[in-house]
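ESCALATION

Customer reports they have been waiting on this structure for their group meeting. Please prioritize. Original submission:
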Amino acid sequence: MSAAERPKKEGAEESPARRAIITVVGRDRVGIIAGISAFLAESNVNILDISQTILQEYFTMMMIVDLAGSKMDTDELREKLVASGESLGLSITLQLEQVFKAMHRIDAL
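Update from on-call: job pushed to the front of the queue and completed.
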Protein backbone atom coordinates (compact mmCIF):
# COMPACT_ATOMS: atom_id res chain seq x y z
CA MET A 1 0.00 0.00 0.00
CA SER A 2 1.43 3.36 -0.98
CA ALA A 3 1.46 6.34 1.35
CA ALA A 4 -1.32 7.98 -0.69
CA GLU A 5 -3.57 4.95 -0.12
CA ARG A 6 -3.03 4.77 3.64
CA PRO A 7 -5.94 5.99 5.76
CA LYS A 8 -5.34 9.33 7.44
CA LYS A 9 -5.43 9.52 11.23
CA GLU A 10 -8.62 11.11 12.49
CA GLY A 11 -8.04 14.65 13.69
CA ALA A 12 -4.52 14.80 12.25
CA GLU A 13 -3.74 18.20 10.83
CA GLU A 14 -1.78 18.20 7.64
CA SER A 15 0.27 21.05 6.30
CA PRO A 16 0.25 21.44 2.53
CA ALA A 17 2.70 18.98 1.01
CA ARG A 18 5.87 20.25 -0.63
CA ARG A 19 6.88 17.11 -2.44
CA ALA A 20 10.27 16.36 -3.93
CA ILE A 21 11.98 13.50 -5.72
CA ILE A 22 15.28 12.18 -4.35
CA THR A 23 17.41 9.81 -6.41
CA VAL A 24 20.42 7.88 -5.14
CA VAL A 25 22.90 5.89 -7.26
CA GLY A 26 26.19 4.27 -6.34
CA ARG A 27 28.03 1.09 -5.47
CA ASP A 28 26.02 -1.07 -3.10
CA ARG A 29 27.13 -1.30 0.51
CA VAL A 30 25.59 -1.80 3.93
CA GLY A 31 23.79 1.17 5.47
CA ILE A 32 22.85 3.34 2.49
CA ILE A 33 19.11 3.42 3.18
CA ALA A 34 19.69 3.74 6.94
CA GLY A 35 22.08 6.67 6.50
CA ILE A 36 19.88 8.63 4.12
CA SER A 37 16.69 7.88 6.08
CA ALA A 38 18.35 9.03 9.32
CA PHE A 39 19.48 12.29 7.69
CA LEU A 40 15.96 12.93 6.35
CA ALA A 41 14.39 12.15 9.74
CA GLU A 42 16.78 14.56 11.50
CA SER A 43 15.78 17.18 8.91
CA ASN A 44 12.07 16.49 9.56
CA VAL A 45 11.54 15.32 5.97
CA ASN A 46 8.84 12.66 5.61
CA ILE A 47 9.40 9.76 3.21
CA LEU A 48 6.11 9.22 1.36
CA ASP A 49 7.21 6.45 -0.99
CA ILE A 50 10.44 4.62 -1.74
CA SER A 51 11.70 2.21 -4.35
CA GLN A 52 15.16 0.70 -4.38
CA THR A 53 16.92 -2.03 -6.25
CA ILE A 54 20.35 -3.51 -6.77
CA LEU A 55 21.56 -3.77 -10.38
CA GLN A 56 24.53 -6.12 -10.17
CA GLU A 57 26.82 -4.25 -7.75
CA TYR A 58 25.02 -0.89 -8.12
CA PHE A 59 22.44 0.49 -5.70
CA THR A 60 19.62 2.67 -7.05
CA MET A 61 16.87 4.33 -5.07
CA MET A 62 14.08 6.80 -5.76
CA MET A 63 12.11 8.48 -2.98
CA ILE A 64 9.12 10.78 -2.94
CA VAL A 65 9.39 12.98 0.13
CA ASP A 66 7.40 15.76 1.79
CA LEU A 67 9.51 18.81 2.63
CA ALA A 68 6.69 20.76 4.34
CA GLY A 69 8.07 20.15 7.84
CA SER A 70 11.73 20.46 6.92
CA LYS A 71 14.01 22.50 9.15
CA MET A 72 15.99 23.61 6.08
CA ASP A 73 15.12 25.37 2.85
CA THR A 74 15.29 23.28 -0.32
CA ASP A 75 18.69 24.54 -1.46
CA GLU A 76 20.34 23.88 1.92
CA LEU A 77 18.78 20.41 2.10
CA ARG A 78 19.96 19.64 -1.46
CA GLU A 79 23.53 20.80 -0.66
CA LYS A 80 23.69 18.67 2.49
CA LEU A 81 22.28 15.61 0.69
CA VAL A 82 24.83 15.98 -2.12
CA ALA A 83 27.68 16.36 0.41
CA SER A 84 26.42 13.36 2.38
CA GLY A 85 26.24 11.34 -0.83
CA GLU A 86 29.77 12.29 -1.83
CA SER A 87 31.09 11.15 1.54
CA LEU A 88 29.36 7.78 0.97
CA GLY A 89 30.47 7.50 -2.67
CA LEU A 90 26.91 8.09 -3.92
CA SER A 91 25.30 10.46 -6.37
CA ILE A 92 22.23 12.04 -4.74
CA THR A 93 19.84 14.48 -6.40
CA LEU A 94 16.80 16.33 -5.06
CA GLN A 95 14.23 18.00 -7.31
CA LEU A 96 10.94 19.57 -6.36
CA GLU A 97 8.09 17.48 -7.74
CA GLN A 98 6.72 20.24 -9.99
CA VAL A 99 10.16 20.69 -11.60
CA PHE A 100 10.51 16.91 -12.05
CA LYS A 101 7.06 16.71 -13.67
CA ALA A 102 7.77 19.66 -15.97
CA MET A 103 11.06 18.13 -17.10
CA HIS A 104 9.43 14.78 -17.88
CA ARG A 105 6.20 16.04 -19.43
CA ILE A 106 5.55 15.17 -23.04
CA ASP A 107 3.25 17.65 -24.72
CA ALA A 108 0.56 16.19 -26.97
CA LEU A 109 0.91 17.23 -30.57
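Sent to customer with the following note: The mean pLDDT is 83.
Escalation resolved.
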